[in-house]
Structures are given as structure tokens and as C-alpha cells.
Write the C-alpha cells for this entry.
Amino acid sequence: MESFGEVTFKGNPLTVVGPRLRVGDESPDFQLLANDLSVVKLSDSAGKVRLISVVPSLDTPVCDMQTRTFNRQLDALGSAVAGYTVSADLPFAQARWCGAAGVARMKTLSDHRDMSFGEAFGTHIKELRLEARAVFVVDAAGIIRHVEYVPEVTNAPDYDAALAAVKALLA
């Protein structure tokens, strides 16, 4: 499934591969690479609330800010929340960025091998082979409770809405 024009980069329309997930959908599981090249699956964090922040590349200002913002906020929410930042960056680049940024709470995961996460979550930008900016909140049972696909890749997501969804699931 492909859609054209729902996502833009600096105003230029792009093709996104994958479905548009909605609140109430069961979250697809995934297999992504952690910084140490181990495989991480959504099911590894079953029983926790999951905040999945999707960015084109950690080496850009908005993606950097998005990951740092969620990292700071998750520190206060405790161990009942798993935080993931997903990009198509290589795991080595993600590890370098995390070390330089001091980010430990948001686990960076790479979709570089086959873009299977992007194709399952509707964030694979075909022309760029990058992820479109998006945020998903998945409850402890694996149901999506918040979705935001950011229409312009260079814009930040609504941090407050995503964090409110996480906090509501913890209440």
C-alpha cells in the first residue's frame, strides 16, 4: 500500500509505504536492531506502555530535539513505560548520537535493514528510504492508543498530546 502527498518534505510531496494505523488498532510487532546489533521486538516490552517516536534521522535538529524531549519526559514516568526512537540510521550512528546527546531513556532502534517497521507502521518514505515523523503510544496489551503522523517531515510532533496519552494509560 502506497500513498502520495500525505507527507511532505519542505513542501514537496512524498510517497509513504504502509498502512495508516489508527487508535484502537492492534500494534504490529517489529524486529529492529538496537545499538549493539541485538534484535528488539515490541513484544519484548509486553505489559508496559510503549512510546514509539519515529524520526527520519537523529542527525537533524528536529529529530534530535524530538528524541531529547521524550527522553527527558520519560525519566519522570518510571519503569512502566518503554520508550523507543525508530529511524533508518545505522545502529552505529545511533549509538554515537546517544553517547554525544546523553540519551539513555529512549532506546534508539534501527530499521535500516529492510524498512519492515516503516512498512508495517506506514512511515517508510519511498523516495528517501527514511522514516516519516510519527508518534505512537501502545498500551500494555498491544493496542494503539495514540497516533500522530506529522504531515511535514521538518515539523515537530505534538509532544503534549503523546505524553498525555502515556500518562492516561498509567493512571
User: Anything to note?
Assistant: The mean pLDDT is 94. The two ends are 36 Å apart (CA to CA). The domain at 2-170 is CATH 3.40.30.10 (Glutaredoxin).
